[in-house]
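Section 3.1: Structural characterization of target chains.
Under the original work plan, the team committed to producing a structural model for every single-chain target entering the pipeline before any wet-lab resources were allocated. The record below documents one such target. The sequence was received from the expression subgroup and is listed exactly as submitted; it comprises 486 residues.
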Amino acid sequence: MPSSLMIGLLYALLLAVLYSIVGHIPVNEGRGWDGQVYLQYIELLGHGQAIVGDPYRSIRMSGFLPLIGASALGVPANSLSTAQAVLNIILISTSAGMLHDTLRQLGVAPRAALLSLATGLLAWPLLIMPFYYPVLSDNVALVVSCLCLWCWTRGLQFPLYTLLAYSVWVLPGLFLIPLALAAMPRNFDHSSATSFSPRLTLLLFAVSLPFVLSLVISLAGQLSDDEVASHSAHLGGQTALISLRTLSFMALVTSITVVVWLGARSVVDSSFWKSVRPTSALVAALVLAASAVAMYLLIDWTNGFQGPPLLHYMFMQSLAAPFKPLVAHFLSFGPVIIIAMAGCIAWGLGKYRYLPKALLASLVCFLPLMLVGSESRQWVGALPVAIVVAAIMPLSLLQRLCCLAFALLLALPSLWLTPALGRALGQGASFQSSDWQLYFGRNGPWMSIETYELGAFMLAAFCLTLTACWAQAQRRSRVLEDSERT
């Protein structure tokens, strides 16, 4: 606990220093686009008025309860963004300390825990967004996810149920994390008793894949080239490589195939089901149902914006460029998301059976969304889980140092956000311009082709570097074995 507390304090200091350098996003006086709307709603609620005609944003207002209280007490609107930024720094730095304690509770070695945590904390949503774009529910989702992991390692079931009920109102899909953790308590984990049946997995995979791929082909075929090319493009900017649509479709099929395989693997793995505690799972399901029913009854869904056509948008993002979602998540979340995904795939091939089933279940549930959709912030709750899984993976010291180096490289451009976005706004530039891309390059759908190509190059370089480190470790191991024999 003392070391976790120290890490939290140091991270708070780092965020405060970056805040003084970078500041708020220079849009709508630091409020941003959605942030400005949320602040208007915060003031409405703070003055006892109701939100009308926007159910999509209404369900997320629970993430701003402190600001609603501050508004009710008379805090002026121009101070609310700053207040939320300071609160986010406190909450995110506390979450960093909780993540470190989580890793140590799971038995991760001190050095591996520090390196993995440092790599994860350099991710854009944790390092920049809490103060740069403070009035977003994404920041609250990260805190909820970290708190869920900490409660799970400490065996605190009741707080997990509470967080499950709350998560439904914070960010779509976030409930998957507390649901899996609550239903599969840590002391009920059967990772050491994994039973893997390749034949049964292949049978289920062979039966399921044609149905899933037929649906994918049908949905992808409904999208014209013009729709894909225009998605998130701004003022003539380019976000898609239509000439590579066939390759993009093949990449989408490959991603879906991996998801179906992992789903089949999960269904036939008896240790998954043994790790589910029936009583806890039933309580979690009832809590989730009660929270969902309350949302349905308390929110007027008949009028106003109910949210974007998510599946439609996700397929357009996948068809924009080969493996564009993977590139987008690498640029936003950093190396930990690639390591965590690789861990899931390796587990699907029968390796790393010791990975905790609750963590695997959380990531496997998010993978269909993450491998198809490139808007990383929609799945930001999965980032803390990825950090924990990456820390548990058996990487060498050299591999972890390489991960940290790439995370630093991805984080450095953030220091130039203020002058670059100032120029972009002054010039009325396209979101796909080089200046705007320091921000929108971390948001997959708005990523320019140049940013995609640079991100794809860096992702390939990262994978090759880690492979080279692994090969070197294997050679060193063989040399040591030969010397011991002689």
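The mean pLDDT is 93.
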